[in-house]
Protein backbone atom coordinates (compact mmCIF):
# COMPACT_ATOMS: atom_id res chain seq x y z
CA UNK A 1 0.00 0.00 0.00
CA UNK A 2 1.26 3.48 -0.85
CA UNK A 3 1.00 6.09 1.93
CA UNK A 4 -0.48 9.45 0.98
CA UNK A 5 1.48 12.64 1.63
CA UNK A 6 -0.34 15.84 2.55
CA UNK A 7 0.50 18.72 0.26
CA UNK A 8 1.53 22.07 1.80
CA UNK A 9 -0.76 25.10 1.46
CA UNK A 10 -0.75 26.45 -2.05
CA UNK A 11 1.32 29.61 -2.26
CA UNK A 12 3.92 30.87 -4.65
CA UNK A 13 6.09 31.93 -1.71
CA UNK A 14 5.59 28.79 0.38
CA UNK A 15 8.42 26.24 0.09
CA UNK A 16 7.51 22.60 -0.53
CA UNK A 17 8.66 21.66 2.97
CA UNK A 18 7.49 22.03 6.57
CA UNK A 19 9.69 24.75 8.08
CA UNK A 20 9.62 24.60 11.89
CA UNK A 21 11.77 27.00 13.87
CA UNK A 22 13.11 24.06 15.85
CA UNK A 23 13.22 20.32 15.33
CA UNK A 24 12.50 18.35 18.46
CA UNK A 25 14.58 15.23 18.98
CA UNK A 26 12.76 11.92 18.70
CA UNK A 27 10.02 13.16 16.35
CA UNK A 28 11.04 10.92 13.46
CA UNK A 29 11.76 13.96 11.27
CA UNK A 30 14.90 14.44 9.20
CA UNK A 31 16.57 17.85 9.00
CA UNK A 32 18.88 19.10 6.26
CA UNK A 33 20.14 22.52 5.16
CA UNK A 34 18.42 24.43 2.36
CA UNK A 35 20.16 26.57 -0.19
CA UNK A 36 20.31 30.29 0.75
CA UNK A 37 17.27 32.03 -0.78
CA UNK A 38 18.55 35.54 -0.10
CA UNK A 39 20.95 37.39 2.17
CA UNK A 40 18.03 38.61 4.30
CA UNK A 41 16.54 35.12 4.85
CA UNK A 42 19.78 33.62 6.10
CA UNK A 43 20.17 29.87 6.55
CA UNK A 44 16.96 27.90 7.10
CA UNK A 45 16.31 24.25 7.88
CA UNK A 46 13.73 22.10 6.13
CA UNK A 47 12.16 18.98 7.55
CA UNK A 48 10.73 16.06 5.59
CA UNK A 49 8.55 13.62 7.45
CA UNK A 50 9.58 10.00 7.14
CA UNK A 51 6.84 8.17 5.21
CA UNK A 52 6.27 4.44 4.61
CA UNK A 53 8.31 3.03 1.72
CA UNK A 54 6.39 1.92 -1.36
CA UNK A 55 7.11 -1.82 -1.50
CA UNK A 56 5.09 -2.46 -4.65
CA UNK A 57 6.59 -5.08 -6.98
CA UNK A 58 6.10 -5.07 -10.75
CA UNK A 59 2.91 -7.02 -11.60
CA UNK A 60 4.88 -9.04 -14.15
CA UNK A 61 7.35 -10.15 -11.50
CA UNK A 62 4.64 -10.66 -8.88
CA UNK A 63 2.91 -13.09 -11.24
CA UNK A 64 6.17 -14.99 -11.77
CA UNK A 65 6.43 -18.29 -9.92
CA UNK A 66 9.76 -19.22 -8.38
CA UNK A 67 11.50 -22.26 -9.85
CA UNK A 68 10.33 -25.35 -7.95
CA UNK A 69 13.46 -27.12 -9.13
CA UNK A 70 15.68 -24.58 -7.43
CA UNK A 71 13.46 -24.36 -4.35
CA UNK A 72 13.64 -28.11 -3.70
CA UNK A 73 17.35 -28.19 -4.54
CA UNK A 74 18.07 -25.36 -2.10
CA UNK A 75 16.03 -27.10 0.59
CA UNK A 76 17.86 -30.37 0.03
CA UNK A 77 21.19 -28.53 0.25
CA UNK A 78 20.17 -26.92 3.53
CA UNK A 79 19.17 -30.29 4.97
CA UNK A 80 22.45 -31.82 3.85
CA UNK A 81 24.40 -29.00 5.48
CA UNK A 82 22.43 -29.64 8.66
CA UNK A 83 23.62 -33.24 8.67
CA UNK A 84 20.54 -34.92 7.17
CA UNK A 85 21.60 -37.58 4.61
CA UNK A 86 19.43 -36.24 1.79
CA UNK A 87 19.84 -37.27 -1.83
CA UNK A 88 18.75 -34.41 -4.08
CA UNK A 89 16.78 -35.52 -7.13
CA UNK A 90 15.32 -32.17 -8.20
CA UNK A 91 17.99 -30.52 -10.33
CA UNK A 92 19.06 -31.99 -13.65
CA UNK A 93 22.67 -32.45 -12.64
CA UNK A 94 25.10 -35.28 -13.40
CA UNK A 95 26.79 -36.73 -10.33
CA UNK A 96 30.11 -36.96 -12.16
CA UNK A 97 32.97 -34.55 -11.75
CA UNK A 98 33.88 -32.31 -14.66
CA UNK A 99 36.38 -34.25 -16.83
CA UNK A 100 39.95 -33.55 -15.76
CA UNK A 101 41.05 -32.02 -19.06
CA UNK A 102 38.25 -29.47 -18.86
CA UNK A 103 38.92 -28.63 -15.21
CA UNK A 104 42.63 -28.16 -15.91
CA UNK A 105 41.81 -25.79 -18.76
CA UNK A 106 39.85 -23.67 -16.31
CA UNK A 107 42.68 -23.67 -13.78
CA UNK A 108 45.20 -22.81 -16.47
CA UNK A 109 43.00 -19.91 -17.54
CA UNK A 110 43.35 -18.45 -14.05
CA UNK A 111 47.09 -19.04 -13.93
CA UNK A 112 47.55 -17.51 -17.40
CA UNK A 113 45.61 -14.38 -16.47
CA UNK A 114 42.55 -15.05 -18.63
CA UNK A 115 40.42 -13.40 -15.96
CA UNK A 116 39.17 -10.26 -17.67
CA UNK A 117 35.95 -9.39 -19.48
CA UNK A 118 35.44 -11.14 -22.78
CA UNK A 119 33.39 -9.79 -25.69
CA UNK A 120 29.70 -9.74 -24.83
CA UNK A 121 28.91 -12.50 -27.34
CA UNK A 122 31.76 -14.69 -26.12
CA UNK A 123 35.37 -15.15 -27.17
CA UNK A 124 35.91 -15.52 -30.89
CA UNK A 125 37.85 -18.77 -30.41
CA UNK A 126 34.95 -20.37 -28.53
CA UNK A 127 32.33 -19.18 -31.01
CA UNK A 128 34.43 -20.56 -33.88
CA UNK A 129 34.70 -23.88 -32.05
CA UNK A 130 30.92 -23.93 -31.54
CA UNK A 131 30.39 -23.27 -35.26
CA UNK A 132 32.71 -26.18 -36.06
CA UNK A 133 30.85 -28.45 -33.64
CA UNK A 134 27.45 -27.51 -35.08
CA UNK A 135 28.68 -28.16 -38.62
CA UNK A 136 30.33 -31.51 -37.92
CA UNK A 137 27.83 -32.96 -35.45
CA UNK A 138 24.53 -31.35 -36.42
CA UNK A 139 24.88 -30.42 -40.07
CA UNK A 140 24.24 -26.75 -39.24
CA UNK A 141 26.16 -23.91 -40.84
CA UNK A 142 26.68 -20.79 -38.71
CA UNK A 143 29.21 -17.98 -38.54
CA UNK A 144 30.59 -16.62 -35.24
CA UNK A 145 28.29 -13.59 -35.40
CA UNK A 146 25.34 -16.02 -35.40
CA UNK A 147 26.38 -17.51 -32.05
CA UNK A 148 25.88 -16.01 -28.59
CA UNK A 149 27.63 -17.48 -25.55
CA UNK A 150 25.75 -16.92 -22.28
CA UNK A 151 25.80 -17.84 -18.59
CA UNK A 152 24.07 -21.14 -19.17
CA UNK A 153 21.49 -22.43 -21.62
CA UNK A 154 18.78 -21.14 -19.27
CA UNK A 155 19.86 -17.57 -19.93
CA UNK A 156 19.92 -18.27 -23.67
CA UNK A 157 16.31 -19.48 -23.62
CA UNK A 158 15.11 -16.58 -21.50
CA UNK A 159 16.75 -14.02 -23.75
CA UNK A 160 15.40 -15.71 -26.87
CA UNK A 161 11.83 -15.57 -25.55
CA UNK A 162 12.24 -11.95 -24.47
CA UNK A 163 13.74 -11.01 -27.83
CA UNK A 164 10.95 -12.34 -30.04
CA UNK A 165 7.78 -12.29 -27.92
CA UNK A 166 5.45 -9.38 -27.26
CA UNK A 167 2.48 -9.11 -24.89
CA UNK A 168 -0.37 -11.12 -26.37
CA UNK A 169 1.89 -13.61 -28.14
CA UNK A 170 1.63 -17.30 -27.33
CA UNK A 171 4.41 -19.75 -26.52
CA UNK A 172 3.50 -23.36 -27.33
CA UNK A 173 4.90 -25.86 -24.83
CA UNK A 174 4.41 -29.64 -25.04
CA UNK A 175 3.75 -31.25 -21.64
CA UNK A 176 5.38 -32.67 -19.57
CA UNK A 177 7.79 -29.75 -19.68
CA UNK A 178 10.70 -28.15 -17.85
CA UNK A 179 9.15 -25.95 -15.18
CA UNK A 180 10.88 -22.76 -16.35
CA UNK A 181 9.42 -22.59 -19.86
CA UNK A 182 5.99 -21.14 -18.92
CA UNK A 183 7.53 -18.62 -16.53
CA UNK A 184 9.91 -17.40 -19.20
CA UNK A 185 6.90 -16.81 -21.45
CA UNK A 186 5.10 -14.89 -18.70
CA UNK A 187 8.17 -12.78 -18.02
CA UNK A 188 8.03 -11.66 -21.65
CA UNK A 189 4.34 -10.81 -21.33
CA UNK A 190 3.41 -13.79 -23.51
CA UNK A 191 0.92 -16.53 -22.74
CA UNK A 192 2.11 -20.12 -22.31
CA UNK A 193 -0.11 -22.60 -24.14
CA UNK A 194 0.36 -26.14 -22.86
CA UNK A 195 -0.01 -29.01 -25.35
CA UNK A 196 -0.69 -32.31 -23.54
CA UNK A 197 1.02 -35.49 -24.72
CA UNK A 198 0.37 -39.11 -23.85
CA UNK A 199 2.49 -41.90 -22.43
CA UNK A 200 1.16 -44.05 -25.28
CA UNK A 201 2.98 -41.66 -27.66
CA UNK A 202 6.11 -41.70 -25.46
CA UNK A 203 5.23 -38.13 -24.45
CA UNK A 204 5.97 -36.84 -27.95
CA UNK A 205 3.93 -34.02 -29.48
CA UNK A 206 1.52 -35.17 -32.14
CA UNK A 207 1.42 -32.99 -35.28
CA UNK A 208 -2.38 -32.81 -35.22
CA UNK A 209 -2.31 -31.48 -31.65
CA UNK A 210 0.07 -28.73 -32.73
CA UNK A 211 -2.00 -27.83 -35.78
CA UNK A 212 -5.16 -27.51 -33.68
CA UNK A 213 -3.82 -24.69 -31.47
CA UNK A 214 -1.80 -22.52 -33.85
CA UNK A 215 -3.29 -19.08 -34.51
CA UNK A 216 -2.11 -15.57 -35.41
CA UNK A 217 -0.76 -15.08 -31.88
CA UNK A 218 1.43 -18.18 -31.91
CA UNK A 219 5.03 -17.00 -31.78
CA UNK A 220 7.28 -19.79 -30.44
CA UNK A 221 7.06 -23.57 -30.27
CA UNK A 222 9.50 -24.97 -27.71
CA UNK A 223 10.85 -28.43 -28.43
CA UNK A 224 13.20 -30.19 -26.01
CA UNK A 225 14.86 -33.34 -27.35
CA UNK A 226 16.06 -35.40 -25.54
CA UNK A 227 13.37 -34.22 -23.19
CA UNK A 228 13.48 -32.89 -19.69
CA UNK A 229 11.66 -34.48 -17.83
CA UNK A 230 10.60 -37.53 -19.88
CA UNK A 231 13.82 -38.54 -21.66
CA UNK A 232 11.85 -38.86 -24.90
CA UNK A 233 13.72 -38.31 -28.17
CA UNK A 234 11.97 -36.99 -31.26
CA UNK A 235 12.67 -39.19 -34.30
CA UNK A 236 13.54 -37.34 -37.49
CA UNK A 237 10.34 -38.45 -39.22
CA UNK A 238 8.15 -36.89 -36.52
CA UNK A 239 10.17 -33.67 -36.55
CA UNK A 240 9.66 -33.48 -40.31
CA UNK A 241 5.88 -33.72 -39.81
CA UNK A 242 6.04 -30.94 -37.22
CA UNK A 243 8.20 -28.84 -39.56
CA UNK A 244 5.61 -29.20 -42.32
CA UNK A 245 3.02 -27.62 -40.01
CA UNK A 246 5.37 -24.88 -38.79
CA UNK A 247 6.20 -23.98 -42.39
CA UNK A 248 2.57 -22.93 -42.98
CA UNK A 249 2.72 -20.19 -40.32
CA UNK A 250 5.18 -17.36 -41.06
CA UNK A 251 5.09 -15.90 -37.51
CA UNK A 252 5.83 -19.18 -35.78
CA UNK A 253 9.42 -19.75 -34.65
CA UNK A 254 10.88 -22.85 -33.02
CA UNK A 255 13.15 -22.82 -30.00
CA UNK A 256 15.03 -26.12 -30.05
CA UNK A 257 16.44 -26.96 -26.62
CA UNK A 258 19.19 -29.51 -27.30
CA UNK A 259 21.07 -29.39 -24.00
CA UNK A 260 20.79 -33.21 -23.54
CA UNK A 261 21.89 -33.94 -27.11
CA UNK A 262 24.85 -36.20 -26.22
CA UNK A 263 23.06 -38.14 -23.47
CA UNK A 264 21.21 -40.47 -25.79
CA UNK A 265 20.79 -44.24 -25.95
CA UNK A 266 20.91 -46.46 -29.00
CA UNK A 267 19.09 -46.86 -31.29
CA UNK A 268 17.78 -43.32 -30.76
CA UNK A 269 19.49 -40.59 -32.76
CA UNK A 270 19.46 -36.85 -32.27
CA UNK A 271 18.21 -34.52 -35.01
CA UNK A 272 18.64 -30.76 -34.80
CA UNK A 273 15.40 -29.08 -35.83
CA UNK A 274 17.25 -26.34 -37.72
CA UNK A 275 18.74 -28.98 -40.05
CA UNK A 276 15.32 -29.74 -41.56
CA UNK A 277 14.38 -28.08 -44.88
CA UNK A 278 13.25 -24.49 -44.42
CA UNK A 279 13.74 -24.53 -40.64
CA UNK A 280 17.17 -22.87 -40.31
CA UNK A 281 15.70 -19.41 -40.85
CA UNK A 282 13.11 -19.77 -38.09
CA UNK A 283 14.89 -21.90 -35.49
CA UNK A 284 16.73 -20.71 -32.40
CA UNK A 285 18.98 -23.58 -31.30
CA UNK A 286 20.07 -23.67 -27.66
CA UNK A 287 22.77 -25.94 -26.30
CA UNK A 288 25.46 -25.86 -23.65
CA UNK A 289 28.01 -27.66 -21.53
CA UNK A 290 26.17 -28.38 -18.26
CA UNK A 291 24.76 -31.85 -18.86
CA UNK A 292 26.99 -33.84 -21.20
CA UNK A 293 30.24 -32.42 -19.83
CA UNK A 294 29.12 -32.34 -16.16
CA UNK A 295 29.71 -28.58 -16.03
CA UNK A 296 26.55 -27.34 -14.33
CA UNK A 297 28.41 -24.98 -11.99
CA UNK A 298 30.50 -23.46 -14.76
CA UNK A 299 27.33 -21.77 -16.15
CA UNK A 300 28.02 -21.87 -19.88
CA UNK A 301 25.59 -22.21 -22.76
CA UNK A 302 25.05 -20.89 -26.26
CA UNK A 303 22.44 -19.85 -28.78
CA UNK A 304 22.81 -20.30 -32.55
CA UNK A 305 20.32 -18.58 -34.86
CA UNK A 306 20.02 -16.12 -37.76
CA UNK A 307 22.02 -12.99 -37.04
CA UNK A 308 19.07 -10.65 -36.36
CA UNK A 309 17.80 -12.94 -33.58
CA UNK A 310 21.26 -13.36 -32.08
CA UNK A 311 21.87 -9.60 -32.20
CA UNK A 312 18.61 -8.96 -30.33
CA UNK A 313 19.52 -11.52 -27.67
CA UNK A 314 23.02 -10.03 -27.44
CA UNK A 315 21.53 -6.60 -26.82
CA UNK A 316 19.57 -7.98 -23.86
CA UNK A 317 22.62 -9.79 -22.53
CA UNK A 318 24.74 -6.65 -22.76
CA UNK A 319 22.40 -4.99 -20.28
CA UNK A 320 21.70 -8.04 -18.10
CA UNK A 321 24.96 -9.83 -17.43
CA UNK A 322 27.49 -9.01 -20.17
CA UNK A 323 29.55 -11.94 -21.40
CA UNK A 324 30.00 -15.31 -19.73
CA UNK A 325 32.90 -16.12 -17.41
CA UNK A 326 36.26 -15.94 -19.18
CA UNK A 327 37.43 -18.98 -17.20
CA UNK A 328 34.36 -21.03 -18.11
CA UNK A 329 34.82 -20.18 -21.76
CA UNK A 330 38.36 -21.56 -21.72
CA UNK A 331 36.99 -24.72 -20.12
CA UNK A 332 34.22 -24.89 -22.71
CA UNK A 333 36.79 -24.71 -25.49
CA UNK A 334 38.59 -27.68 -23.95
CA UNK A 335 35.28 -29.57 -23.78
CA UNK A 336 34.67 -29.11 -27.49
CA UNK A 337 38.20 -30.33 -28.18
CA UNK A 338 37.52 -33.70 -26.51
CA UNK A 339 36.34 -35.07 -29.84
CA UNK A 340 33.11 -35.92 -31.62
CA UNK A 341 30.16 -35.89 -29.17
CA UNK A 342 32.54 -35.35 -26.27
CA UNK A 343 34.77 -38.32 -26.97
CA UNK A 344 35.50 -41.04 -24.42
CA UNK A 345 34.90 -38.80 -21.40
CA UNK A 346 31.24 -38.26 -22.32
CA UNK A 347 30.64 -41.78 -23.61
CA UNK A 348 31.79 -43.17 -20.25
CA UNK A 349 29.19 -41.08 -18.42
CA UNK A 350 26.48 -41.98 -20.93
CA UNK A 351 27.22 -45.68 -20.46
CA UNK A 352 26.73 -45.29 -16.70
CA UNK A 353 23.48 -43.36 -17.23
CA UNK A 354 22.17 -46.12 -19.47
CA UNK A 355 22.98 -48.81 -16.91
CA UNK A 356 21.08 -46.84 -14.28
CA UNK A 357 18.16 -46.34 -16.64
CA UNK A 358 17.96 -50.05 -17.38
CA UNK A 359 18.05 -50.91 -13.67
CA UNK A 360 15.31 -48.44 -12.74
CA UNK A 361 13.05 -49.36 -15.65
CA UNK A 362 13.36 -53.02 -14.70
CA UNK A 363 12.82 -52.36 -10.98
CA UNK A 364 9.83 -50.04 -11.31
CA UNK A 365 8.41 -52.32 -13.98
CA UNK A 366 8.02 -55.01 -11.31
CA UNK A 367 5.51 -52.84 -9.43
CA UNK A 368 1.93 -53.56 -10.45
CA UNK A 369 -0.01 -50.65 -11.88
CA UNK A 370 3.07 -48.65 -12.84
CA UNK A 371 3.31 -47.31 -16.39
CA UNK A 372 6.68 -46.39 -17.88
CA UNK A 373 7.77 -44.84 -21.14
CA UNK A 374 11.37 -46.00 -21.39
CA UNK A 375 13.54 -42.89 -21.86
CA UNK A 376 15.77 -42.81 -24.91
CA UNK A 377 17.92 -39.95 -23.67
CA UNK A 378 18.72 -37.57 -20.79
CA UNK A 379 18.77 -38.98 -17.24
CA UNK A 380 15.12 -38.88 -16.18
CA UNK A 381 12.42 -41.48 -15.62
CA UNK A 382 8.90 -40.04 -15.87
CA UNK A 383 6.62 -42.65 -14.31
CA UNK A 384 2.82 -42.87 -14.17
CA UNK A 385 1.73 -43.94 -10.67
CA UNK A 386 -1.85 -42.72 -11.04
CA UNK A 387 -3.31 -46.18 -10.41
CA UNK A 388 -2.11 -45.94 -6.80
CA UNK A 389 -4.13 -42.89 -5.82
CA UNK A 390 -6.96 -43.73 -3.47
CA UNK A 391 -5.73 -47.27 -2.92
CA UNK A 392 -5.37 -48.88 0.49
CA UNK A 393 -1.99 -50.48 1.17
CA UNK A 394 -1.61 -53.01 3.97
CA UNK A 395 0.66 -51.72 6.69
CA UNK A 396 0.79 -48.26 5.16
CA UNK A 397 -2.66 -46.80 4.83
CA UNK A 398 -4.41 -44.89 2.06
CA UNK A 399 -2.34 -43.25 -0.66
CA UNK A 400 -4.12 -39.94 -0.98
CA UNK A 401 -1.53 -37.49 -2.32
CA UNK A 402 1.95 -37.14 -3.79
CA UNK A 403 3.62 -37.11 -0.38
CA UNK A 404 2.09 -40.38 0.79
CA UNK A 405 2.82 -41.97 -2.60
CA UNK A 406 6.45 -40.90 -2.41
CA UNK A 407 6.83 -42.27 1.10
CA UNK A 408 5.21 -45.58 0.14
CA UNK A 409 7.47 -46.08 -2.87
CA UNK A 410 10.58 -45.23 -0.90
CA UNK A 411 9.64 -47.66 1.84
CA UNK A 412 8.93 -50.37 -0.73
CA UNK A 413 12.24 -49.73 -2.46
CA UNK A 414 14.39 -49.53 0.65
CA UNK A 415 12.44 -51.17 3.44
CA UNK A 416 12.66 -48.03 5.56
CA UNK A 417 11.41 -44.48 5.84
CA UNK A 418 13.99 -42.58 3.84
CA UNK A 419 14.98 -39.06 4.98
CA UNK A 420 14.05 -37.81 1.52
CA UNK A 421 10.57 -37.45 2.99
CA UNK A 422 11.82 -34.37 4.83
CA UNK A 423 11.81 -32.51 1.55
CA UNK A 424 8.09 -33.18 1.04
CA UNK A 425 7.18 -32.11 4.57
Automatic annotation (TrEMBL):
PROSITE patterns named among the record's database cross-references: AA_TRANSFER_CLASS_1
Q: Where is this region: Disordered?
A: 1-40
Alphabetical list of InterPro entries matching this protein:
Aminotransferase_I/II_large, AspAT/PAT-like, NHTrfase_class1_PyrdxlP-BS, PyrdxlP-dep_Trfase, PyrdxlP-dep_Trfase_major, PyrdxlP-dep_Trfase_small
Question: Per the record, where are the segments of Low complexity compositional bias?
Answer: 1-25
The pathway noted for it is: Amino-acid biosynthesis; L-phenylalanine biosynthesis; L-arogenate from prephenate (L-Glu route): step 1/1; Amino-acid biosynthesis; L-phenylalanine biosynthesis; L-arogenate from prephenate (L-Asp route): step 1/1
What cofactor does this chain's UniProt record say it requires? pyridoxal 5'-phosphate
Q: Which one of the record's GO molecular function terms can you name? A: aspartate-prephenate aminotransferase activity
Any one GO biological process = aromatic amino acid family biosynthetic process, prephenate pathway
Q: Tell me yes or no: is Transferase among this UniProt entry's keywords.
A: yes
Q: Which UniProt keywords apply?
A: Aminotransferase, Pyridoxal phosphate, Transferase
> Which intervals hold domain Aminotransferase class I/classII large?
85-388
Read off the CDD domains from this record.
AAT_like
- What is the name of the protein in this document? Bifunctional aspartate aminotransferase and glutamate/aspartate-prephenate aminotransferase
Amino acid sequence: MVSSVSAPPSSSSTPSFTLPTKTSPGTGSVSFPRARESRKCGARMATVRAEAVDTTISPRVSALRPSKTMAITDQATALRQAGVPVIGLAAGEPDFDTPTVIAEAGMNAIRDGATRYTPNAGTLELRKAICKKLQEENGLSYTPDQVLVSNGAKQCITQAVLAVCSPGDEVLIPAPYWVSYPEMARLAGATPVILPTSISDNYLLRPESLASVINENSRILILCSPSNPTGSVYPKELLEEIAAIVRKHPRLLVLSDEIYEHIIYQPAKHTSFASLPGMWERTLTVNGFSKAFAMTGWRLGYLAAPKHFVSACGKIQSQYTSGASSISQKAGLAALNLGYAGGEAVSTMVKAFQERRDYLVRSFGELSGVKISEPQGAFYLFIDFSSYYGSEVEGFGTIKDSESLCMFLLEKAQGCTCPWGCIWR
